[in-house]
Amino acid sequence: MEAFFNAVLPPTDNRPMPLNVDKIRQAAQREHDVSLFTKRWSLCTLVPPTAPENGQYCEWRRYRGTEETRTYLADMKSLRDRLSHGADPFSATNRSGAMWSTQKGPSLRMMGVEGFLQASCDLVTHTIEAYGGAIEQVPAWPRPDRFEGTPPAPA
Predict the structure, then answer these.
(1) How far apart are CA 4 and CA 46, in angstroms?
(2) Do residues 43 and 119 touch, judged by C-beta distance below 8 A?
(3) Tens digit of each residue's pLDDT (9 = 90 or more) over 43-73
(4) For residue 13, which phi and psi values (nearest 5 degrees)?
(5) What angle do CA 134, 135, 141 make, to 5 degrees?
(6) In this predicted structure, what is the pLDDT of residue 147?
(7) Which of 97, 113, 116, 126 has its CA 20 to 30 A from that of 65?
(8) Which is nearest to 108 in space by CA: 75, 143, 81?
(9) CB 37 within 8 A of CB 151
(10) Which residues does residue 46 pair with via DSSP β-bridges, in sequence order?
(11) DSSP codes of every residue in the chain
(12) Listed residue (110, 111, 123, 118) closest to 141, CA to CA
């Protein structure tokens, strides 16, 4: 995800753009006069089961708007930072509730990785549309069978 936004917004100071909603939004506005991560953006991801009737099945959850998107991406960045720097991954934040609770701390199961890929596709779609791309130009991302709806068009 960071590589995508670094390709869209090449860094001017040779430092890669972190997966930070506010920094990405500011760079897009400053460099291209494009509004990214607006309040109408959303993403879907798989989260741990919350309803007893779902048993052990993961659930699709939509994170809507700037704050929910920021919280989800901050958790994913927190986990990525710990993994890439050899720190304890169980100390990652889980404010979004997207990770599984374990005795050691939050964890991202394989289903959560699948969910992150779906969330990334949603954010790429919004970005293409924000830059003026037509919906026909957006790749046809595969949608899971249990997924309902598509992200709303960005404002």
Answers:
(1) 21
(2) yes
(3) 999 899 887 776 677 888 999 999 999 999 9
(4) -110, 20
(5) 140
(6) 56
(7) 113
(8) 75
(9) no
(10) 60
(11) -HHHHHHHS--SSS-PPPS-HHHHHHHHHHHH----S-TT-EEEEEE---SGGGTT--EEEEEEHHHHHHHHHHHHHHHHHHHHTT--GGGS--TTS-SEE-SSSEE--HHHHHHHHHHHHHHHHHHHHHTT--GGGS------TT----PPPP-
(12) 118
The pLDDT score that the predictor gives to residue 79 is: 94
Lookup result for tokens 């897009």:
28
The closest alpha carbon to 18, from 84, 96, 94, 65, belongs to 84
Sequence letter at residue 112: G
Token code pair at residue 27: 């760079």
In b/e form, how buried is each residue of 83-99, taking b as 16+ CB within 10 angstroms? eeeeeebeebbbebbbb
* Contact (Cβ atoms closer than 8 angstroms) between residue 49 and residue 144: no
Q: How far apart are CA 49 and CA 44, in angstroms?
A: 15
The amino acid sitting at 139 is P
pTM: 0.84
CA distance 11 to 17: 6
Tokens of 128: 């293409």
Pull the structure tokens for residue 100: 């599984």
